[in-house]
Specification:
Elements: H1 19-27, H2 34-38, E1 44-47, E2 62-76, E3 82-89, E4 94-100, E5 114-123, E6 127-129, E7 133-138, H3 140-145, E8 182-185, H4 194-212, H5 220-226, H6 231-239, H7 247-275, H8 287-295, H9 302-316, E9 322-327, H10 333-346, E10 350-354, H11 358-372, E11 380-382, H12 388-400, E12 405-408, E13 422-428, H13 435-442, E14 449-454, H14 460-466, E15 471-475, E16 486-490, H15 495-507, E17 511-515, H16 530-540, E18 546-549, H17 555-567, E19 572-575, E20 588-593, H18 601-608, E21 619-623, H19 631-638, H20 642-653, H21 655-659, H22 678-694, H23 704-720
Parallel strand pairs: 4-6, 9-14, 9-15, 10-12, 10-13, 11-12, 13-14, 16-21, 17-19, 17-20, 18-19, 20-21
Antiparallel strand pairs: 1-8, 2-3, 2-5, 3-4, 5-6, 5-7
Helix pairs in contact: 4-6, 6-7, 7-22, 7-23, 8-10, 9-10, 19-20
């Protein structure tokens, strides 16, 4: 007897109302199987459980109405803003709805459509609703297909079930048939509307849930403790809530499952590195590290001492260190990295630091030469620019073990570079390197310790998700005496005065940056272009040496421009965001940023960190193009702490922009929201670490389901986790 085919595992094309043609459209939104469809959850809901009668609407209230579109059109205004307007009517009256700047809605909303709209009621030549949200509940074509004239509705081509199905409630009779329902709105794509997706799900939901059965990867006692519903109940409610208030609890159920398995993956990666890979115990007498601490002309901050203490203890263990050192711009990560490298050298091992660019590698080289000269440790530099006999000498010293401390770029992992006794690998600005680059440097010898550094502060919750397999050290304070950068957010009316101030700074012998979001003028984007403004600034400051830096220059050209600015031969650098991260130009005192709305908070903070490196007071002036500064810019002006700004960025932007897609193209979190679910993250992390501590291989019967789920979800990611 042939077993019944699982509709969860089968192709979506065999579900009711789909077919081959529509299956191709579903594939565009990553829905390939019945299970994909079941987990394609609404991204918002339209609540028709409390619908207002149009005749009773008052100016100033927030309202939700359902009505038939009786007229529509696009109307231009004196300011050249095109406004889509539609008059809708229910059984009590009619009202105009207006969508400023959204003329394309004229192509998606037709006369005769049944529309649900929510938003404030304002006075504009009478009452007007300005919808924040809207959804077409039924189209005029649906009504014609269900008019009782014998028509069967839209016909499907022979052999194809791609014709749009009619779900319960989709063909209402009367003017307010949808009142009392909550309508899910799904992410859609060209040729596949959210209404069509909703109808397909309504037709197939019962069968999909039946196929799912009572399976739940999360134990029932956990769900009771966390007050979360079982998986089938959560999925059913998310697709068919009877009230919007039910949604959050069910969203949290899926969020916990996602966060738990990700933390379980991290916990297994940490355990494997600690217990299955033999590392180096750096327990030699602290001669060099103590000498450096005594020779420094300053005291380490409390945060630096804490980070160094964590790293020192980790390196003393006989398991490979896998640690992330995170610190704000100018917080002193390099000194802590130098201490870690010296600890490896004390034990007779080699230490290497890899920077993303030659300029940054050369800066590290200069810093280490100055810092370590009293200790008799000479750093060896290896970059693409080190050629000929100098390169051969460097390679020979590295291979012989004479080069105890090596500074370089990706040249360190090229063929022909052989370390005699690698002990520690430090990777600066680790996100700038690909996975394979990090793997090759990490595996250049017998399981060396790894310290990865980042000057881009991220929220703790984000760090646990992205780097949960790494131990985390944070430097969250600046050295004493460092003068805060004065930050000002200004409108266009202040631009001339700001450039006058910039001229005063240049006349005083200072250097400055002016940053723009684009390289050239664009008809689509109105942002000021770097190439155009470069010419204007050359004319405005004829006595200054002005240079242009952007991503379309060759690597050699970019390198030459940055070296000129670093040497002081260039006074004013007009640039896009390719300004070198981490490069110190102590004489640079002004950072000006145009069209600042186009930059994220983390990016703005990184740009601000390019100044304030010397003894003089430094300034960051950002311009907004809108009438008033955005919430993000207000936060940027008030806060100078990178970690506080990172939390604010997560709150304002949400995690979608911060995550994006990973290198292998997978979305890391689909259901969890870190600004909302941090308690679930901690709960999942505690449980995951406890399980792995008791059963590292997940071989016990109670844990086999967990291991199976990990294999299904994260096989590719797990294979890469030894990289760090």
């Amino acid at each position: 007897m042939t077993p019944a085919r699982s509709i969860l595992k089968g192709s979506v094309q065999y579900l009711k109302g789909v077919g081959p043609r529509r299956a191709e459209r579903f594939a565009k939104i990553d829905v390939h199987t019945g299970q994909d469809l079941l987990y394609h959850l609404p991204y918002r809901y339209e609540d028709a459980t409390t619908v207002d009668a149009i005749s009773e609407l008052k100016v100033g209230q927030d309202a939700t109405v359902i009505g038939r579109v009786v007229s529509k059109g696009v109307i231009p205004t004196r300011r050249r803003l095109r406004v889509f307007r539609a008059v809708i009517r229910d059984g009590s009256g009619h009202i105009e709805c207006a969508w400023p700047g959204r003329p394309w809605l004229d192509r998606t909303i037709d006369k005769g459509d049944l529309l649900l709209a929510s938003g404030p009621v304002r006075f504009y030549h009478g009452r007007q609703l300005q919808p924040r949200e809207h959804v077409v509940l039924a189209q005029a074509s649906d009504e014609r297909g269900a008019s009782g004239d014998g028509s069967a509705g839209p016909s499907a081509p022979s052999g194809d079930r791609s014709a749009e199905p009619a779900a319960s409630g989709e063909r209402p009779s009367g003017e307010r048939p949808a009142a009392g329902r909550v309508f899910p709105v799904y992410a859609a794509t060209e040729g596949l509307t959210h209404r069509q997706i909703r109808a397909v799900i309504e037709l197939n939901l019962a069968g999909l849930l039946c196929d799912l059965g009572d399976e739940d990867p999360i134990p029932g006692d956990w769900l009771e403790e966390l007050r979360l519903p079982p998986l089938p109940e959560a999925l059913r409610t998310l697709h068919r809530p009877s009230a919007v208030a039910q949604v959050e609890r069910c969203q949290r159920r899926l969020a916990f499952e996602e966060l738990f398995f990700l933390q379980l993956l991290h916990a297994r990666a940490r355990a494997r590195l600690r217990h299955e890979v033999r590392g180096i115990a750096f327990d030699a007498p602290a001669t060099l590290t103590r000498s450096l601490l005594n020779a420094l002309p300053f005291e380490l901050t409390a945060a630096q001492r804490r980070a160094w203490s964590e790293i020192e203890a980790d390196m003393a263990r006989p398991a490979p260190m896998n640690r992330l050192l995170q610190g704000d711009v100018g917080s002193g990560k390099t000194v802590v990295a130098a201490l870690a490298m010296l600890k490896a050298v004390e034990a007779g091992r080699q230490a290497a630091i890899m920077a993303p660019t030659e300029l940054l590698a050369e800066q590290h080289q200069r810093t280490f030469v100055e810092m370590l000269a009293p200790l008799g440790v000479e750093p060896v530099l290896l970059t693409g620019s080190v050629t000929g006999k100098a390169r051969q000498r460097a390679l020979a010293r590295i291979a012989a073990g004479d080069a105890r401390l090596v500074v370089g770029t990706h040249a360190l992992i090229q063929e022909g570079v052989d370390f005699a006794s690698p002990g520690l690998v430090v990777i600066d600005e680790q996100h700038r390197f690909g996975v394979e680059q990090r793997r090759r440097l990490r595996e250049s010898g017998e399981a060396p310790d790894a310290l990865v550094m980042s000057a881009t502060p991220i929220p703790r919750s984000l760090a646990l998700v992205l780097y949960g397999d790494l131990d985390l050290s944070i430097i969250d304070e600046l050295p004493p005496g460092r003068r805060p950068i004065r930050t000002a957010v200004r409108g266009a009316e202040s631009r001339d005065a700001a450039f006058d101030f910039l001229g005063d700074q240049l006349a005083a012998g200072r250097q400055a940056y002016v940053v723009y979001p684009l390289v050239e003028e664009s008809e689509v984007l109105e942002a000021r272009a770097a190439t155009v403004m470069f010419e204007q600034l050359e004319a405005r400051f004829p006595d200054a040496a002005v240079r242009l830096l952007h991503g379309r220059l060759s690597s050699a050209e970019k390198d030459e421009v940055m070296r000129s600015f670093l040497a002081g031969d260039t006074n004013l650098l007009v640039a896009t965001t390719v300004i070198e991260v981490g490069i110190d130009v102590p004489n640079a005192t002004v950072m000006m940023i145009e069209d600042a709305e186009r930059f994220g908070l983390a990016q703005l903070h990184q740009l601000r960190g390019r100044v304030g490196r010397g003894a003089e007071q430094s300034y960051c002036i950002v311009f907004h193009a809108s009438e008033t500064p955005s919430e993000r810019l207000v936060a940027f002006e008030k806060k100078t702490n990178g970690f506080e700004l990172a939390e604010e960025d997560l709150r304002i932007r949400g995690q979608g922009d911060l995550f994006g897609k990973e290198q292998h193209g997978a979305v890391l979190l689909k259901f969890a929201q870190l600004d909302r679910d941090h308690d679930l993250l901690d709960a999942g992390r505690r449980r995951a670490r406890a399980i792995v501590a008791a059963d590292p291989g997940l071989s016990k019967p109670a844990h086999r389901r967990f291991r199976h789920e990990l294999d299904l979800r994260y096989a590719q990611r797990e294979a890469l986790y030894h990289v760090g």
